[in-house]
Amino acid sequence: MIGSGLDRLSRSAVPAAMHDSGEAFDRPRCHEKTRVAVLKRLMDWIFGIVDTESAILWLYGDAGAGKSAIAQTLAEICAREGLLLASFFFSRNDPKRSTHQPLASTIALQAATSVPELRDLIEAAIVRDPTIVEKRLDIQFSLLLFEPINSLDNQSVTAFQALPKLIIIDGLDECSDPQIQTHILQVVADAVAGCNQRLKVLIASRPETQIATTFTCDPLRTL
């Protein structure tokens, strides 16, 4: 049974934004034997094979370039291989997915669901402060995800080492407020930098000016 903390988290999360949502059945995917080079380079980055230390990579292109298909396909591959911690697919056509408000909750719920050792830590954070899901985005990411991950490092070395490494955020440009798009990047970059685990975050979007400008600053990089 879901505890009171995770029950509150699930009410603020948006399942439709997850890669395996029932509403994602018609989401574009890469056809077999297409985008092979891009997918290989992304997998190499996840495994640390490519020559970059960047924890955050930007997959960008104009409308119709196949960004979401790549993100969806990568999410499915990594989920099968136990590499995916969480995903969030923004959509301007869905009011619940065109805002930043459920982002941290949706990612944290997936982490709590896929990593049993994290579940109690995340739930305990919500029990301590039931208003977490209504706080600033940086506070949500810190208390709901990155502090529990750091605590896991102290409680279970085995679980910490086996923790899935990848977070995918697709369609950032479809978040309705351009200033919030930049804020999300800054929050994610700061949070990842303070995490004991070497997480990887893939951001996919159109090359909007405010997003491109943010990616000129460390620790953000382009792919």
Quote the average pLDDT: 90
The poorly predicted ranges are: none
Q: Biggest sheet: strands side by side, in what order?
A: 2-3-4-1-5
Strand percentage, roughly? 5-15%
Task: Characterise the protein shown here.
It contains 9 helices and 5 strands. Strands 2-3-4-1-5 form a 5-stranded parallel beta sheet, sandwiched between helices. The longest helix is centred in the middle third of the chain and has 19 residues, at 137-155. Helix 8 links the parallel strand 3 and strand 4. The protein has helices at 4-12, 36-46, 67-80, 103-114, 116-128, 137-155, 157-161, 178-193, 209-214, and strands at 56-60, 84-89, 166-170, 200-205, 221-222. Helix 1 packs across helix 5 and helix 4 (103-114) crosses helix 5 (116-128). The protein is an alpha/beta fold.
